[in-house]
Structure formats: C-alpha cells, structure tokens
Amino acid sequence: MRKYGVAIPLSGETYNLAKRCQHMIYDSMNIKSLWIYGTEPHINLISGTTSNIDNIINSIKEFQYESKKYCEAIGLGVLITPDPLIYLRFTHSVFLRELRYFLFHETLPLWDSLTNTVKDNIWMPKSTLAYKDFTINDLSKALIPLKDINYQLMMKIDELSIIDFTDKEYEIKRISI
What DSSP element (H or E) covers 90? Predict the structure, then answer.
C-alpha cells in the first residue's frame, strides 16, 4: 500500500516567501530537511494510504468551482512536539473549505486510511517550513531571522499536487483546477 497526499502547491509570491523563510532558517542553524530534501512547499488537503490513486486523480479532475480560488497567508505558526514544526499559516477560506469538502465526499471511499493530520478536528491550512533537524531548545534561534517578515499575502490557487510519501516525499503529478 502506498502513501499519497493531495495538496495545493504554493505559488507566486507565497512560494517565494516560503522558500526565503526556509533558506533563512537553514542559514541560521542548518535546518535543511525540507529546504533541500522535501517536496516544494504545499498545503496538504487529504492524505493517507491507497491503491486507488488513479481513481482519486480522476475524481479531482471533476471538481468545479466558479468563485475566486484564493487563500491568504497570515503568519507563522509553531507546533510544539518532540519534533517541533514551523509552518506558514493560511486562512481557512471558503474555497479551501469547498475543496476539502469535495475531496472528502468524493474520494473518501478510495482511501484505505487517512493520516491523522488531515482529520477535521485537527487539520489547519499550513505549509511546513522546517521540521526535524532541530529541538525545542533550538526553536527561538530558528524563528529570530523570521521575525520582521510581512507574511500577509494572497495566493491564487490554480493547481493541485499529488505527492507520494511512501518512502521519500516527491510530487508525481499536477492537476489544473
């Protein structure tokens, strides 16, 4: 069974901001797990195990949305766990709610299991900037270079990304929406 995710790839100035933040974190303390080895910055929408990824992709191609396809970057966030996570946070826009609703209602039977982080009670629109490679004690050193950045950016959403994360995380397909 393979592990896949359906995500929104960051684009435009929001993509540039995420990459700049990752580079600044790397320069401050050599945190490179995502900047060098990860997929491009993205917002994970639904993920888990499936042997039906082609059917999921075909379902996604049926998604129709007439209004503006946007979300807004609003700042940084941190999850304090044994492996802390620094992320770029986004608004929970009407478009994101509609897209997730579609994905869950149209593709849920095609997933064998879902990852915990996409379940409604804990999911949030975010793009991970740094994860692992540092401890809670290193957190302030990682965040200091990011303190004066303006994170308020609007991002148009034109594509979805299909990511395989079975062994190593990599993008396998982009779908225009």
Answer: strand 85-90
